[in-house]
C-alpha cells in the first residue's frame, strides 16, 4: 500500500496527523527532497510499524538515489543501537560506564556516502524518536557546525514527529473491530 493511501485512510481522530503530513511532506518547502525522504524513511523504520515502513521505503525509493536510500536505512539502524547505548549511559547513575569504551561498530556514520548534513539530520530524527538526549545533542551540534539553521533542524524534527505518530495510529487501526471481545 502506498504511503499516500495510508495517510488518506487515517481515521478522523488522526486528522491533525493527516493535515500535518500534507503540509510537511506533500507540500514541503523547507527540506531538499533527499533530506525530506531520508527523514521519512529513517523515521518510519524507527516506528517499527511494518506497513508504514514498507510504504515509506517504496515511496522513498522514488525520491532517493539507491545510495541515499541505503544511507537513510543505515541511519535508522545505527541510531537504533546507539540510542539505547547512549541513553543508558545518560540514565545510569554509575558514572564509570561513561569512561568505558563503547566497543560498538558505527562505521556507517563515516562511510554512508551522502551529504554529511543529511545523514546527521536523519540520525537526529531517529534519536528524537527514540528519546536519546545525548544523541540528539551530539547530532544537532554537528548539523549546526556544518552550517544548518535551527529552522532546518526543526523542520526535520517536525517530519519525524508526524511520521512517528502515524505508527501507533496505523497499528491501532490494523486490529479488526470484530475481533475485539467486549468485556
Tell me the radius of gyration: 17 Å
CATH topology (level 3) name: AhpD-like
State the separation between the terminal residues, measured CA to CA.
33 Å
Number of strands: 0
Family: Belongs to the AhpD family.
Disulfide bonds: 132-135
Protein name: Alkyl hydroperoxide reductase AhpD
Catalytic activity: N(6)-[(R)-dihydrolipoyl]-L-lysyl-[lipoyl-carrier protein] + a hydroperoxide = N(6)-[(R)-lipoyl]-L-lysyl-[lipoyl-carrier protein] + an alcohol + H2O
Tell me what you see in this structure.
- InterPro entries: AhpD, AhpD-like, AhpD_core, CMD-like.
- Belongs to the AhpD family.
- It is an enzyme of class 1 (oxidoreductase).
- It comes from Paracidobacterium acidisoli.
- 71% of the residues lie in helices and 0% in strands.
- It is globular, with a radius of gyration of 17 Å.
- It contains 9 helices and no strands.
- It is mainly α and 183 residues long.
Task: Please render the helix and strand layout as text.
Layout: H1 3-8, H2 15-26, H3 33-47, H4 50-63, H5 66-91, H6 108-111, H7 116-130, H8 133-145, H9 150-174
Helix pairs in contact: 2-9, 3-4, 3-5, 3-7, 3-9, 5-7, 7-8, 7-9
Protein name: Alkyl hydroperoxide reductase AhpD
Domain Carboxymuconolactone decarboxylase-like: 97-174
Function: Antioxidant protein with alkyl hydroperoxidase activity. Required for the reduction of the AhpC active site cysteine residues and for the regeneration of the AhpC enzyme activity.
List keywords for this structure.
AhpD-like, 183 residues, globular, peroxiredoxin activity, mainly alpha
